[in-house]
Amino acid sequence: MNILNQLLHHGMTVYALVGQSGTGKSFRAKLITQKYGLNAIIDDGLLIQDDKILAGKSAKHEKTYMGAVRVALFDDKEHRDAVARVLQKNHIKRILLLGTSEKMVQKIAMRLQLPPPEKIIKIEDIASRDEIEKAIRSRQIEGKHVIPVPAIEVQKSYPQIFYKAMHEVLSKGRRMLRKKESLTEKSIVTPEFSKKGRIEISEAALTQMTLHCVHELDSQIHVKKLTIKTDSSGYRLIITIDVPFGKQLTGLIHSLQTYIIDNIERFTGILIEEVSIIIDKISVPAGTPAEN
Prior knowledge:
alpha/beta, 2 domains, six-stranded mixed beta sheet
């Protein structure tokens, strides 16, 4: 019985909240679920419902940053299958996915065999620039993260990373505020990887990996130029190449893009948002007779 495929036919509604790491997504997740009537959250490898961790494992418990990224992306089949089984068992119909980019939440949805998000909310739409910058400074200086469940849940499953509980008032409208207010609790944690510092991928290392992927796929392709651009969503690669005459270009470009993205993401855990291929020249091998 393929449990993952069954989820596609159960009327699942998927929303997503995206924003750069450390901008306060987990902190605001409950506000979003309340506003849109969502009843579960996928956050950093965990399935959360009704203030309880139902399934999954927390990326914040990983000892390395790369390991944390892989957990957050449900890279391990056993991990994502376990979450999928609980999604089906609990008949969850409306869910919020958290991620650093649209590509990340789309990848999570695909790996959990959920429909693509029908609404993507950006952190900038629900938090002011000052609030976002304050959250980023706090993350960079203190290394503290939020898990949107009460302290007892985190202490039970991840006592090593628990720091303290925090409380927040959720209101369901401006009128009759006191009657509609409810107190919610979140947990502040110090991830294992934060204690050791974050691993960054240098442009030199990323260039080396990209060149290796190109050569491994087709040693006849010559890379003339490689430009790497980064932003809060991930990395964008612009590759200028020469290809030998006789190659089927459309298939070649698609294969090259897919091969680079799949291999770099699998081995590093970083997200490649885009690979753009520019063909500068189609080379004719020496000795090839010219046409009249």
